[in-house]
Amino acid sequence: MTRIRRGYIARRRRTKIRLFASSFRGAHSRLTRTITQQKIRALVSAHRDRGSKKRNFRRLWIIRLNAVIRERIVEGAVSYSYSRFIHNLYKRQLLLNRKILAQIAISNRNCLYMISNEILKEVDCKESSGII
């Protein structure tokens, strides 16, 4: 009986998996079973860490904003914090997200101080006139 040569589909699938794991160390880049396990593990980690990266950056922006806002205590306000700043932003209906505000805080603090002073003036005027 003559020998039957196998098809190329399984080999193509394995080479595709091997290309994914070519940068892994040891058996994780050489043995097909461990390559598939490591591929699953890598993709799970990537999926999980995409969400944590978003959370970490949001935390960083909030920390930066809070530090810059607390650094400059405005006359008339005993303590001005991040939460009050964001609350007053929403009252004024200013649509600036935390990323943009943090970039402004780093690159041009005076601009952020101007924004916060204007917000405070507007809120104080509305509160004193009884609009709110």
Automatic annotation (TrEMBL):
The keyword Phosphoprotein does not apply. It is found in: Plastid, Chloroplast. Keywords: Chloroplast, Plastid, Ribonucleoprotein, Ribosomal protein, RNA-binding, rRNA-binding. One of its GO terms (biological process) is translation. It comes from the Eukaryota. One of its GO terms (cellular component) is ribosome. NCBIfam families: rplT_bact. Belongs to the bacterial ribosomal protein bL20 family. Binds directly to 23S ribosomal RNA and is necessary for the in vitro assembly process of the 50S ribosomal subunit. It is not involved in the protein synthesizing functions of that subunit. This is Large ribosomal subunit protein bL20c. It comes from Sabicea diversifolia.
